[in-house]
Amino acid sequence: MANDMLWAKGLPLDAAIHRFTVGDDPWVDLALAPHDALGSAAHARMLARVGLLPEADMKALVGALHALHDEARAGAFTIRPEQEDGHTALEAALVERVGEPGRRIHLGRSRNDQVQLALRLMLREEVLKLGAQAVELAGAFLDFAQANATVPMPGYTHMRRAMPSTFGLWGAAFAEGLLEELEALRGLWARLDRCPLGAAAGFGVPLPIDREYVASLLGFSRVQRSPIDVQNSRGRHETATLTWACSVAGGLEKWLWDVALFSTEEFGFLALPDAFTTGSSIMPQKKNPDVVELARARCRELRGLAKQVEEIAGGLPSSYHRDFQLLKRPTLTALGSFRELLDVLTRLVPVLKIRAEAAARASDDTLYAAHHAYVLVGKGLPFRDAYREVAHQISDGNFHPDRAALTATHLGGAGNLALEQIRAELSTSRSWLTEIHRTLAECAGRVWQL
């Protein structure tokens, strides 16, 4: 068993220690395998370019890695427990398929920067997918807002009726929030857009490697220069990515809370389609909003997983430590859970049913108290006096506002939702994501081309 390891020196290895140190890497690393294959192909091309690998060996390796990449994407690549991790399994597969060149692939790198590159490539891909999903969900909120722009509903503060609102104003809020998150995504992308390969164990290598060439091949705009910082950043980029995801989820959690509340019999403003509800094993009448509740729980789960990543990565000296191995599972779990959350909400928003009559009944005259105070201000009364006058009218039961007297027509108000402006900015984010995806696909194509 010990001789299967990349670090094997022919010494004995305790089986229990092996199981403990390997952990669940043989399963977790399957998600990184296609990225590891792509990064390894770029590495082989670089070695050939600088004269450290024969051209024929490079072509054999790139061809085999392309096949392994496709197998990993299709779920056909396997990692045996005795192989310890995906890097070992990948190199073993190369030796099996192309022979001696497979034993040359690890020249000029360590598993430390190899896994960093695979993780960076994976995070880039996931961020682009999540960004595209956020765009689609924002579009769904915009469509909802547009379709219900003038349908009235109460606006709440402190969970109490406050001012008149509309379902359009409510829906537009979540589109706007996602738009801001998409703008923040560019900052996250800039952090991920640097190639770590060449750092090796954290101190570089005494070989004439070309780190800039590898970065260019893989579509990175720059090299992560400091080899020590490459190792220090293990966990930093995972945390940054999950922090962004948690921020997105924080806004969506508010929407989910609203839906859960507004769809109760006591409110009755909203209704879920039957296909989005579940039943009770004892109460025949129940149609439970389990999807809303579980989606809300996913938002909290994300925060827990992000905190787990932060705790594992924190409190360590500089450079590499085996602790980092435990970062992979919570990171991948969080990303998968977040993808499912965005997918489910994008399906839910368009089919959410509005019960306009119930919302209208809840929109009583007291919602227009501030509006009526402004009417009095328009007649010359100072605002504080108008405020008190309206308070007295409400207290005395003589409050009868003209609901149509005033409307918020300023930018973003109920009378000016600026939906087309939001849609145009959303289109800009979509184009940015599409262009990056296209560029990276072209880069991968060039890596594989023989």
Automatic annotation (TrEMBL):
Residues 36-304 form the Fumarate lyase N-terminal domain. GO terms for cellular component: cytosol. InterPro entries: Argininosuccinate_lyase (IPR009049), Fumarase/histidase_N (IPR024083), Fumarate_lyase_CS (IPR020557), Fumarate_lyase_fam (IPR000362), Fumarate_lyase_N (IPR022761), L-Aspartase-like (IPR008948). It is found in: Cytoplasm. GO terms for biological process: L-arginine biosynthetic process via ornithine. Transmembrane segments: none annotated. It catalyses: 2-(N(omega)-L-arginino)succinate = fumarate + L-arginine. Its EC number is 4.3.2.1. Pathway: Amino-acid biosynthesis; L-arginine biosynthesis; L-arginine from L-ornithine and carbamoyl phosphate: step 3/3. GO terms for molecular function: argininosuccinate lyase activity. Keywords: Amino-acid biosynthesis, Arginine biosynthesis, Cytoplasm, Lyase. Belongs to the lyase 1 family. Argininosuccinate lyase subfamily. This is Argininosuccinate lyase. It comes from Hyalangium minutum.
